[in-house]
Amino acid sequence: MSKCMRTTVRLPENLLRRAKRKAAAEGRTLTALIAEGLTIVLGEARESTGQKRVQLPVSAATGGTLPGVDLDDSAALEDIMERE
């Protein structure tokens, strides 16, 4: 079990009220709710649950748009797409 430390945190009243309500509705302490939130924000939840960050593939295509294609002209783009 990890060592716990006591600290003071200043929160806006409305946020604190909402957090207390949520913790009570879930049957847990405000401390547990805050600890879970910090864990998520710090990215540790992903590591502790075994989830890994997904590496999305990146296209190796080069060259950009075809000659004569103006990405700022939506009507011309529609015409090109209808031809194909």
Describe this structure in words.
The chain is mainly α and 84 residues long. 48% of the residues lie in helices and 0% in strands. It has 4 helices and no strands. It has helices at 13-25, 30-41, 44-48, 74-83. The chain starts with 12 loop residues before the first helix and ends with a helix. The model has no long low-confidence stretch (mean pLDDT 83).
How many angstroms separate the termini?
A: 63 Å
What Rg, in angstroms, do the CA atoms define?
Answer: 25 Å
From the 3D coordinates, which CATH architecture of the domain at 9-53 would you assign? Orthogonal Bundle
- CATH class label of the domain at 9-53: Mainly Alpha
SSE run: HHHH
* 3D shape: elongated
Mean pLDDT: 83
Structural class: mainly alpha
CATH topology of the domain at 9-53: Arc Repressor Mutant
Task: Report the total helices.
Answer: 4
What is the beta-strand fraction? under 5%
- What's the story with the biggest beta sheet? none
Number of strands: 0
Q: Low-confidence runs (pLDDT<50, min 5 residues)?
A: none
Could you estimate the helical fraction of the residues in percent? 40-55%
Summarize the structure.
By secondary structure, this protein is mainly alpha-helical. The chain has a domain at 9-53: Arc Repressor Mutant, CATH 1.10.1220.
Q: Characteristics of this structure?
A:
mainly alpha; Arc Repressor Mutant; elongated
Helices, strands, pairings?
Elements: H1 13-25, H2 30-41, H3 44-48, H4 74-83
Helix pairs in contact: 1-2
